[in-house]
C-alpha cells in the first residue's frame, strides 16, 4: 500500500488543479497535503490513512466525484469508504427510504442541493470508524488555522462546529491531536479580527 501514496499525491494535485484556497493565491491541493502531514506528525501514518487524507475532498469538490468508484479500483475499499464518508455529497443509495425515518426523529438528511445537512453529516462522522473521525479532526485543525480568511458566517460555523462537536469528539478518540484544534480556536478568539468582526465591535 505504501507504493500507492505517490499515486494519491498525483491524484490530489491533478483533480484539484486550478482550485485555490480562500487564503491568498494558494493551490487547493496544499490543504489535503497539510492534513496528511498533520496526521503523520501525530502518528497516524498508515498508508490508507494518508491516502484518504490526500483524497478526502476529491469526491465532494472535483470531477472525480462523477467517477468515484475509480478510487475503489485504484486504492481499495477502505480508502474509498473513508473518502465517501468524509464527503457531504454522498447521502447514499437508500436516502429516499431513510428520509421518513429521519424526519420522524426531527432530522433533515439532505439540503436543497441533495448534500448531507450539517446535522446528518455529523451523525455520519459520529458513527464512522475512529480513523475517519481523526482525519476529519485533522481537516478541522488545518481549516481553523486560517479562520480570518472565511466570511463572518463561515467563521461562526467553524467555531460552533469545533466547540460543540469536533473538540468533544476528539477528546474521546484523539486527545493529543485535538489539543491543536482547541488552541486554534482559543488563539483566534484573542485576535483583533475576532473581536472586531465576529463580536461585532465594527
Structural class: mainly alpha
Give the overall average pLDDT.
95
**Low-confidence regions:** none
Assigned CATH architecture of the largest domain: Orthogonal Bundle
Shape: globular
Q: What's the number of structural domains? A: 2
Termini separation (Å)? Answer: 52 Å
Largest beta-sheet details: none
Reading off the top of the CATH hierarchy, the class of the largest domain is best stated as: Mainly Alpha
| Strands, total number | 0
Helix content: 55-70%
Round the Cα radius of gyration to an integer and report it: 17 Å
Order of helices and strands: HHHHHHHHHHHH
Our count of helices gives 12
**CATH T-level topology of the largest domain:** Hypothetical protein af1432
**What do we call the CATH homologous superfamily of the largest domain?**
Hypothetical protein af1432
Compact summary:
The protein is mostly helical.
Task: Describe the protein in words.
Helix 10 (152-173) packs antiparallel against helix 11 (178-189). The protein is mainly alpha-helical and 202 residues long. The protein has helices at 5-15, 30-41, 47-55, 58-61, 69-75, 77-85, 95-104, 118-126, 130-143, 152-173, 178-189, 192-198. The chain has twelve helices and no strands.
Amino acid at each position: 500500500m505504501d507504493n500507492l501514496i505517490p499515486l494519491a499525491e498525483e491524484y490530489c494535485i491533478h483533480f484539484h488543479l486550478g482550485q485555490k484556497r480562500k487564503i491568498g493565491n494558494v493551490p487547493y491541493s496544499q490543504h489535503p497535503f497539510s492534513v496528511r502531514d498533520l496526521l503523520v506528525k501525530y502518528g497516524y501514518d498508515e498508508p490508507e490513512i494518508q491516502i484518504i487524507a490526500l483524497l478526502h475532498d476529491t469526491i465532494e469538490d472535483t470531477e472525480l466525484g462523477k467517477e468515484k468508484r475509480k478510487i475503489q479500483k485504484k486504492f481499495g475499499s477502505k480508502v474509498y469508504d473513508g473518502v465517501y464518508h468524509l464527503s457531504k455529497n454522498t447521502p447514499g443509495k437508500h436516502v429516499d427510504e431513510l428520509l421518513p425515518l429521519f424526519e420522524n426523529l426531527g432530522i433533515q438528511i439532505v439540503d436543497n442541493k441533495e448534500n448531507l445537512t450539517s446535522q446528518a453529516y455529523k451523525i455520519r462522522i459520529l458513527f464512522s470508524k475512529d480513523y475517519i473521525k481523526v482525519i476529519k479532526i485533522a481537516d478541522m485543525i488545518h481549516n481553523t488555522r486560517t479562520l480570518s480568511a472565511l466570511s463572518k458566517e463561515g467563521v461562526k460555523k467553524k467555531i460552533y462546529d469545533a466547540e460543540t462537536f469536533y473538540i468533544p469528539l476528539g477528546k474521546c478518540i484523539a486527545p493529543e491531536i485535538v489539543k491543536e484544534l482547541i488552541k486554534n480556536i482559543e488563539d483566534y478568539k484573542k485576535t483583533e479580527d475576532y473581536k472586531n468582526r465576529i463580536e461585532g465591535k465594527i
